[in-house]
Design brief:
Blueprint: H1 8-18, H2 39-53, H3 68-77
Helix pairs in contact: 1-2
Length: 82
Amino acid sequence: MSSPQVPPSLRELLSDVFEISPEEVIPELSSTTLENWDSFRHLQAVLALEGEYGVQFDPQRVPELTTVALLQAELEKKGVRL
């Protein structure tokens, strides 16, 4: 099974937050595989996503959203069209 692609808007936003190239933003990218993905940048990413897409994440779920794929799935679950 192949991984879904990361939409350009999400790719750009996360590359800015994590200070990496857009090509590095893949579904499997996670807090364990990227040194820049610390707790501070995780919060920055969540806040940037909330602002960009007009959603609010459940604070209980935020610590669990540790991969690009999980962030993308959570946005889609909230009805965001990526």
